[in-house]
Specification:
With 139 residues, the protein is mostly helical. The protein has helices spanning 5-29, 33-46, 62-93, 99-136.
Length: 139
C-alpha cells in the first residue's frame, strides 16, 4: 500500500496534538479535595440549593430527592393513562353497535392498562435501585 507524504504528515500532526492534549488535560485535572468541595458548595449555593458547607453535599438526601422526581413522573403518566381509559370507554359507549369502533376502544383500554402496569413496574424498580444506591452512596 502506497502512503502519500501529505497523509503521513497530517497523521503525525494529529497524533502529536492528541498526545499533547492528553498531557495538558492531566495537568488541568489536578486539584485538591478542598478545591473540589468548595467548587461544589459555590455552584450549589449559586444555584439556590441548601448546601452543607463542610462537605459540599446537598442537605436534601439522595433518596428523597429522586423519589420526588419518580413520584412526579408516575403521577403524570398515571393521569395520561387515566385519560386514555376514559377515551376508550367513551369510544366503546358511543359505538352504537359498530364493531370496529368497539375493537378500537378495546385496544385503547388494553394498551392503557398495559402501559400503566409498565409504569408501575418501572416505578417499583426505580424505587428499589434508588433505595439501594441511597444505602451505598455516603457523602
Amino acid at each position: 500500500m502506497k502512503v502519500n507524504k501529505s497523509t503521513l504528515i497530517v497523521s503525525a500532526a494529529l497524533v502529536s496534538l492528541f498526545g499533547l492534549s492528553l498531557i495538558f488535560s492531566q495537568i488541568s485535572w489536578a486539584s485538591t479535595a478542598t478545591e473540589i468541595i468548595n467548587g461544589f458548595s459555590k455552584t450549589g449555593g449559586a444555584a439556590g440549593y441548601d448546601i452543607n458547607p463542610t462537605s459540599g453535599a446537598p442537605k436534601k438526601e439522595f433518596v428523597a430527592a429522586w423519589s420526588n422526581y419518580i413520584n412526579g413522573f408516575a403521577t403524570i403518566f398515571g393521569a395520561f393513562f387515566m385519560v386514555l381509559v376514559i377515551y376508550g370507554g367513551w369510544l366503546w359507549m358511543s359505538a352504537q353497535g359498530k364493531e370496529e369502533q368497539v375493537e378500537q376502544a378495546k385496544k385503547i383500554i388494553i394498551g392503557a392498562v398495559i402501559g400503566l402496569a409498565v409504569v408501575i413496574g418501572g416505578r417499583l424498580i426505580a424505587e428499589l435501585v434508588i433505595t439501594y444506591l441511597g444505602q451505598t452512596v455516603v457523602f
